[in-house]
Amino acid sequence: MVNRLQQHCLRGVLFGLACSPSTLFAQTEWMACPVPEVAAAKGVQRPANLPPQAVYIEADSALFRDTGVSTMSGNVHVSQANRRLQADEASYEQPAGIVSGSGNVSFSSDNMQVRSSKLRYNLTQNTGEMREAEYHLSQADGQGFSKRVVQESPNLTRMEDSTYTTCPVEKPDWSLNAKTITLNHAEERGTARNATLKIRDVPVLYLPYFSFPLTDARKSGFLWPVIGTNTSSGLQLSTPYYWNLAPNYDLTLTPTLLSRRGLQLGGEFRYLTPKHKGTASYVLLPKDNASDKDNRFYFNVNNDTRLGELSSLQLKAEGVSDDQYFVDLGNSLAATSVVNLERRLEYRTAGSNWSFSSLLQNYQVLDGGTAPHARLPQLLLSYNPPQKSNGLNLKAETEYTNFTGSKTETNGKRLDLMTRVSKKFSTDAAYVKPSLTFRHTEYALDDANNTQISRSLPTASVDSGLFFEREIKEGRYIQTLEPRLFYTYTPYRDQSNIPVFDSSARSLSYNQLFSENRFTGKDRIADTNRLSASISTRIQSPKDGRELFRASIGQMYHFDDRKVTLPDTAALEGDRSELILEAAGEINPRTRISTTAYWDSEEKTVNAGEVRVHYKDDKKRVLNVGYAELKDEFKSANLSFAVPINNNWKAVGAWERDLKNNRDLETVIGAEYESCCWKTRVASRNYLLTDNTTRDNAVFVELELKGLGNFGSGTRDLLQNRVYGYE
């Protein structure tokens, strides 16, 4: 069975219309509106043993006839199956099954509840008419008034001279006023003709035809327009059209008018089958009036294909027409900071003890720098046999890569073989794990001499640790103490003649204390003769296992200078690394703090550090404060918050500052208003472009009407990305 695309639906759409998650909020939790009185009418006390089609009648007084018209008065209740009628006076006509009511009439069914002055309904055919009606729709959670409600068939309701809203009907913040509203309950769709959208009784939009889902079902049509603005492109107005092509694939076309640049055309196709899922999007600006570049485009393709239970094929391809595309057409610091775009095709498969992958990969470089080598292809085979009866763990890995495509660096082929054996000796309180790794690498370079290079190196390491535990605060908490020693040795081999295809120096971190190689990739194997020592402590709650506090301190002790280097870098000297300190914990149930520091014990200074504080309480007040520093490189601070001002208003903001150069990197300030039936968000963003001089401004506005949809740009996504904990 084909799964439907998982998405949330636009509740109102224009001119024949739609639902697309690429332009919508995620599922929204709304405040509860007061339940309309019509929806809260008391049900009929119907005997449980009656057949569903039997007509049950109660009244203070009644005159019943086997045929013809029966009359009832005073607290009249009539029910059949899922239909219930309450009225001051009513009549029932046999055998036609027609019930009529007057005076405080309430009628309910699976689809709607109505309160009116007069009703005539055919219980046999499920058709009828109500006058001067106040109604509530069960499917759409909407309500309103109508001069005339006609139930034309069990699944088709027509309302004349009607209003529709999801707000309290007494004083709605917004309403849709239409000459005719038709509800197709089977198709879960409503249509309105000659409709006017009013905000606080002020007409803001006239729609000759309007269609809206009664549920979260998807359907084709125009989505609400999207409006935004920034300095680079000016006013941006998009009018997406959504095609619900099938339950498992759809298409959204989005023409966008950029006031400074021209008309931009975009499209996104999505699909989901039992074996395939993915998206393909393309955006084209045929003529850019603000630059000398035309036919500017962006594309992004993602596909995941399941070839079997353990086999898959992934495709990712992203590209732009020119290096300045994101600088000119992006609207965030993150977008303008993109330096390369990846294209990759990867096949993966596995067995019980082995795995295999093949990769084709290259990049489009946007910053004018050196492009990474393309991997055409990379083949990787790993083998992990079951643990031996004597406790030995074995691992073998083989990789072949053809590095090509570089016009400035050496290209070539690399074959790497790695075997590893280890064994862990452990008790509940201690462990020792020795390991031995052997790596052999062959290179065939595409230079004038077709140079052949080989390298073989062993690495030995011993990891060991102790576990101490005690109860504190009369057993309410458990504290652990975990000292750890890690020794590793790799002999020196001159590797200066080996090109660097994929290696780089790892940044020092706490986890790096227990790594055998200080380089990533396979082109550099560091000569190592060092001991890492650390100690950690944790405080945990034994009731739920929650970690309340954790702190670690560690350092590397080198017994030799490190001679293996990357090109144009000096050998590392010194007998010890910086002292690394990490701590994280709860100050209280609402506040959590984490910090990392790198202490130079010789210079008696902090070379790098970071502190982050996160606060969030039951009132959804959020505050994040951060500071980061790298000696002689940068100092930065960031602050973000979300603060409810009252039950409806919330202030939101984020700020990031470069303290070293005394400049703001990005500032976002916004506000959100929420009632039980509509929301609005507005945000302004100022950010630094990649030239480190020019700044851009962007404004985001979003209006969401419960039951109709959202109008505007992705303000919610912006605020969620910038304010950790914002909901």
Automatic annotation (TrEMBL):
InterPro entries to which the protein is assigned, alphabetical: LipoPS_assembly_LptD, LptD, LptD_2, LptD_C, OstA-like_N
Range of residues in the leader sequence: 1-26
Domain Organic solvent tolerance-like N-terminal: 56-188
Recorded superkingdom: Bacteria
Broad class of where this protein is predominantly found: membrane
LptD C-terminal domain sequence ranges: 295-649
All copies of domain LPS-assembly protein LptD central, residue ranges: 193-272
Keyword Signal attached: yes
Subunit structure: Component of the lipopolysaccharide transport and assembly complex. Interacts with LptE and LptA.
Sequence similarity: Belongs to the LptD family.
Task of the protein: Together with LptE, is involved in the assembly of lipopolysaccharide (LPS) at the surface of the outer membrane.
The protein, known as: LPS-assembly protein LptD
Source species: Thiothrix litoralis
Gene that encodes the chain: lptD
